[in-house]
């Protein structure tokens, strides 16, 4: 009696051939699906990238326009390499007979940026870093193109260290002593002021 339900037996070679045929069919079907829907997916991705790019450009444009108006109306300056980044040199301090226009960096973001990316500033422009505690501070000149003098002061605004910093130099400059305030000014201005260690700088913000 013949058993019609008997499952045929395949040799190892035949099994491998069947598996290969199945893989080829899957690849072929995937190719057909990609041809049908792939271009639509890619078009959607490109559209999303375009939208994000336009949003970024719009933000930069609006910020640049706002910065340009601020430049006219106040002492805020657009960063040379980041035109949408605004630094406001809106405070004034007096050392000897010289009036210095300063920006005050009070939070971590402002302190990390410092005077980076500025290629040119009026010689009497600088930046004051204010910290909540008194400890040894380290500064570097990454992406900083202006030659600066870094003046480290304690909680009483007494100068504890002075260091000239070379543009783009990644070697750190240390206060060597606990510091609560740090004033960055351009070296040309410091040569005129001749600030010394032990001097008191009158700062009333």
What is the N-to-C succession of helices and strands? HEEEEHEEEEEEH
Please estimate the helix content.
25-40%
Oligomeric nature of the chains: single chain
Distance between the termini: 108 Å
Query: How much strand content do the residues show?
Result: 25-35%
Question: Count of DSSP E strands?
Answer: 10
Class derived from helix and strand content: alpha+beta
Number of helices: 3
Average of pLDDT: 78
Strand order of the largest sheet: 3-4-5-10-7-8
Mind summarizing the main beta sheet?
6 strands, mixed
Tell the overall outline. Answer: elongated
The value of Rg in angstroms is 32 Å
Unreliably modeled segments? 57-66, 68-73
What's the helix and strand layout?
Elements: H1 12-73, E1 76-78, E2 86-88, E3 91-95, E4 98-105, H2 108-113, E5 125-135, E6 138-139, E7 148-153, E8 159-165, E9 173-174, E10 179-186, H3 187-193
Parallel strand pairs: 4-5
Antiparallel strand pairs: 1-2, 3-4, 5-10, 6-9, 7-8, 7-10
């Amino acid at each position: 009696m013949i058993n019609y339900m008997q499952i045929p037996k395949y040799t190892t070679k035949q099994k491998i051939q069947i598996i290969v045929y199945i893989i080829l069919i899957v690849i072929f079907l995937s190719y057909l699906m990609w041809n049908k829907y792939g271009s639509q997916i890619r078009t959607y991705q490109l559209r999303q990238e375009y939208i994000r790019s336009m949003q970024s450009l719009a933000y930069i444009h609006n910020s640049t326009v706002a910065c340009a108006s601020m430049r006219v109306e106040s002492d805020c300056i657009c960063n040379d390499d980041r035109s949408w980044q605004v630094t406001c040199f809106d405070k004034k301090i007096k050392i000897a007979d010289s009036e210095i226009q300063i920006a005050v960096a009070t939070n971590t973001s402002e302190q990390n940026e410092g005077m980076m990316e500025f290629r040119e500033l009026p010689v009497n422009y600088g930046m004051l870093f204010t910290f909540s505690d008194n400890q040894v501070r380290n500064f570097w000149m990454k992406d900083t193109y202006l030659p600066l003098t870094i003046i480290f002061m304690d909680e009483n605004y007494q100068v504890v260290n002075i260091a000239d910093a070379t543009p783009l130099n990644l070697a750190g400059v240390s206060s060597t002593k606990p510091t609560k305030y740090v004033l960055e000014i351009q070296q040309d201005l410091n040569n005129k002021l001749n600030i010394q260690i032990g001097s008191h700088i009158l700062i009333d913000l």
